Protein: Amidohydrolase family protein
Organism: Pedobacter steynii
Amino acid sequence: MKLKLSLLSFVLMALTCHTFAQQAHDLIIKDVNILSMRDSNLLIKRSVLIQKGKIVRIDDFKNLRPAKGVKVISAEGKFLMPGLAEMHSHFPAEGQVDTLLLENVAAGVTHIRIMNSGTSQVAIRERLKKSPDLISPKLHYSQLIRKDIRYSVSQFDSLMMDMKKNGISFIKLLSLADEETFDNLMKSANKNKVTVCGHFPRAVSLEKVLNSGYKSIEHLAGYDGISDETQLEKMISLTKDKAVYNCPTLDWDLFSMNLQYPDDYKKRLTYASSPKQYRDKWEKEYAAEIEKKGKEKVLAGKEAGLAIFARKQQLLKKLSDKGCLLLAGSDAGNSFQMNGFNMHEEMWNWSLAGIGNFKILQSATVTPSMFFNEQDSWGTVEVGKSADLIILSKNPMKDIRHIRSVETTIIDGKVYFPATFH
Ligand SMILES: [Zn+2]
């Protein structure tokens, strides 16, 4: 269905008008096909009872005997799976945060790992606490470390103490001063049981990073400098043994190396369905950026960029084939990257790199819950888990692009219908 309305205004309208649960109602999702993500099996025509925001029973509908007042969503022929976890998100300046949150919910995102923010994360957290009706995925907050920080172990200890007080769950390393600071940071983090992840610290060797307790590496950096295949295999094995996660953010490479210039961006999965005012804005911004860089230079650099990108695709495939832990994150925020919906784009990028649909879906659901050590509370469709779920009209195990058929997003049992525009 083609909509005359812009997607964004439609999304906002759909979310605000058709949200029927301001409080977590008891709910049954009836006769749905379930992709639990515990394994790749599809449970056919089951019903899911949700109470107080949690999945309490999965059974045939006739066995559930709904109490009066329980909302029933008929979902025959549709697909239920855990909501998506956007594992690499940058938050904008104040005033734009609510739109980002809404767009993520509309795209089926129920968890966000904040990797940087133009607004105080503590302020965001306080505001969400005070306004329970604000529509938002569940947020995982970070403490950023930049290269101007040269702390001793005890200084890092007190920083981590403060983080715990403020409900900040992990450290994102943006840039590193030197190797000594890395040693101090990891010593303190391991002692205080605080997760550290982020950019690859170029002052330190990949082998040392993999052995340090560093939990996730962004953008596949660190592996890119290894030209010797045996050494690369060794590092991939170490990545697997040490359970280090990788968050590839392939879409960021497409943008940063201008690989879709001059007009391949029009073929992007999400381009045509993005709001016109967004497309107009992006096109203007992108033209200005290319102008600044110089058209000739951009085109000349594209060939080398495509080779780098192909190498990254191969690396991702190798990590995946080895059984390494992967996190899907979109790094949205640049031209042609719509918040939330860019997760669909990133998942398609992985598919083009040869990653199987189950692995892609795991990397956007259950594997992120493991990253946060929260696999007992979310990330799969199982009894006892939070009802952070999406209902799709098409099966994403058949074609990963079907992830775009999100019809319903459920967070802690609250139900949103954002997606009749597909
Ligand atoms: Zn980033």
